[in-house]
Amino acid sequence: MNSPKGSFPHLHISIASQSLTLIGAGGESLCQFPVSTALNGPGEQNSSGCTPRGRHYVRAMVGGGQPQGTVFVGRRPTGEIYTPELAARYPERDWILSRILWLCGCESGINRGPGVDSFRRFIYIHGTPDTEPMGKPRSHGCIRMRNTDVIRLFDLVSPGIAVTIEES
């Protein structure tokens, strides 16, 4: 989890380029996906609506085997599959779809601990409706991905994989 880059596979999220890259053990880019980070920009404070920076790891993975478009509330499938009609019925929902990779901070006082804890803030990498733009900050703090992309990523990684979120 706190390993140096290049020694183990890890994820790198760039807020500037709105991208997530899976880096292999040799430091090579294995795949890259467009993402959408927080509309409020980077930041670690509770209730800020910002995407936290720094070193994290995937503490839990939720949704394996669920159909694409599965709707989650509180990390549990609701039994619904996202549709435009469902969205029209619940326009206030922040849709968390298909898969969840729940992040935990590694840096005490920065993204772990009182007032700044990424895990307690429920910071995820998760699927979002295809109508939501990628490459533009629009989330409430999480890292949003296309459903097909988050399912692919979910199948490529395991709990414990290191994640670095940087502004550059």
TrEMBL record:
Q: Which UniProt keywords apply?
A: Cell shape, Cell wall biogenesis/degradation, Glycosyltransferase, Hydrolase, Peptidoglycan synthesis, Transferase
Q: Which domain of life is it from?
A: Bacteria
Involved pathway(s): Cell wall biogenesis; peptidoglycan biosynthesis
UniProt key word Hydrolase: yes
Residues annotated as the enzyme's active site: 126, 142
Q: GO CC terms on record? A: extracellular region
| Gene Ontology terms describing biological process | cell wall organization; peptidoglycan-protein cross-linking; regulation of cell shape
Q: Which InterPro entries match?
A: LD-transpeptidase, LD_TPept_cat_dom, Transpep_catalytic_dom
One Pfam annotation reads: YkuD
Q: Does the keyword Cytoplasm apply?
A: no
Q: Which GO terms describe its molecular function?
A: glycosyltransferase activity; peptidoglycan L,D-transpeptidase activity
Domain L,D-TPase catalytic, residue spans: 9-166
The family assignment reads: Belongs to the YkuD family.
Under what name is this protein listed? Answer: ErfK/YbiS/YcfS/YnhG family protein
**Source species of the chain:** Marinobacter lipolyticus SM19
What is the organism lineage in this UniProt record?
A: Bacteria, Pseudomonadati, Pseudomonadota, Gammaproteobacteria, Pseudomonadales
